Amino acid sequence: MDLPLLRSTFAVVERRAEHAVTYFYSHLFWRNPGVRELFPEDMVPQRDRLFAALTHVVTGLDDPGLPAYLGRLGRDHRKFLATPALYAAVGESLLAAFAHTAGAMWTVEAEKAWSEAYGLVAELMLRGAQEAVAAGEPAWWDTDVVGHRRHGDDLAVLTLRPRRPYPYLPGQYAGVSTLRVPRVWRTYSLGNAPREDGTLDLHVSRIRGGAMSTALVDGVRPGETLRLSAAGGTAVSRTPPGALRTYICAGTGWAPVRALLEEAAAHDPAAEGRIFVVARSREYLYGREDLDQLAARLPGLSVTLITSAPRHPRRQATERLLTALRACGRWADHDVHLAGPPGFLTEVSEVLAELGADPARTHHDVLPPAGRFATRPATRAEWLLEPPAVHWHDPAARIPHEDRS
Ligand SMILES: NC(=O)C1=CN([C@@H]2O[C@H](COP(=O)(O)OP(=O)(O)OC[C@H]3O[C@@H](n4cnc5c(N)ncnc54)[C@H](O)[C@@H]3O)[C@@H](O)[C@H]2O)C=CC1
């Protein structure tokens, strides 16, 4: 495959990404009546996602990990009802959009290189999907909502009972979809270690204008059905029994940490280390009872709760956390588990590295990809060639202007 040619044409297309994406979707929907209904109503996040995904593929074409990644992606895309015919239609429209946007750069060689590259991507994704079918894995898991507990105006913990066994590890996340917001999938961490009755918790923080989080916090009620996609994420426990560890979470980042603590309480109750729970204010420190109970089962872990002072911006809590982390020692000996808003993860990881924590032992979910569109919140949709990273929503999207700092 002609990588330099792929990259040089992509660089040209990328400069007119907005135009290319508009052309791509218009072409796709015009040529394939019926396909529009497979996509969410709000297409704006789709546009960002498409280019984030293309960037990932183009930059990673020579990455030996790409086939496995694309296989997982294909397996996951069954939830979007992605058929081989749809993969072919997407490829055709993508090439048409590139040809239109790249102008004089779109030579016969460039078209051949892109056609081959897309063919390979589609083949690897479809193979992943076929393997999942062969293994008997469903495209998604239907679950019944059996509990819905509010914590203040913006937070809710939903309890779901999957209708068939749902495999996952503590610390992982799942795509979630509700018919209240058709065809939209959002990622949420699973808030408990697997239970005997199979139920699992989602912790949801409402974002302003966020259709999915608003539906889950305000709308969804027990008795309704939610769909879950296959669990993903590598921020699972790798700490050997007895080794030191630190758990740091902010906001609903408490969910995966809670799951990891449940796992530790069951299998490694003598674990030693520390837990830091950060929230924008005392009212947002939800789940205190659970934390107290888990702390009692894990007496070797010290617990520190950190919030912003009343009427102070929410990020003051992060500054307070960083002060507390600087006062701790032996970072090189600790496995660290981090969960929370993307900006929080970036800032805390950097400080931890400065303090001597080993980045290879600092575990958190992948951050949203950097790039041209990265500053826009990608909140409510996923589709073919979704971006590589989990799109935790951008908390800035829900901070009122007067509270930004
Ligand atoms: N596995 C993971 O990493 C998980 C991540 N999340 C993400 O965590 C966030 C939770 O949202 P909320 O509960 O509403 O939290 P929030 O918006 O109330 O933030 C909680 C605290 O995080 C810190 N923070 C927020 N934005 C920051 C930034 N840009 N830089 C530094 N510190 C920052 C502040 O101290 C704030 O008080 C969402 O973005 C969600 O997508 C949620 C669950 C799991």
Automatic annotation (TrEMBL):
Keywords: 2Fe-2S, Heme, Iron, Iron-sulfur, Metal-binding, NAD, NADP, Oxygen transport, Transport. Its EC number is 1.14.12.17. It holds the Pfam family FAD_binding_6. It catalyses: 2 nitric oxide + NADPH + 2 O2 = 2 nitrate + NADP(+) + H(+); 2 nitric oxide + NADH + 2 O2 = 2 nitrate + NAD(+) + H(+). Residues 138-241 form the FAD-binding FR-type domain. Belongs to the globin family. In the C-terminal section; belongs to the flavoprotein pyridine nucleotide cytochrome reductase family. This is nitric oxide dioxygenase. It comes from Streptomyces omiyaensis.
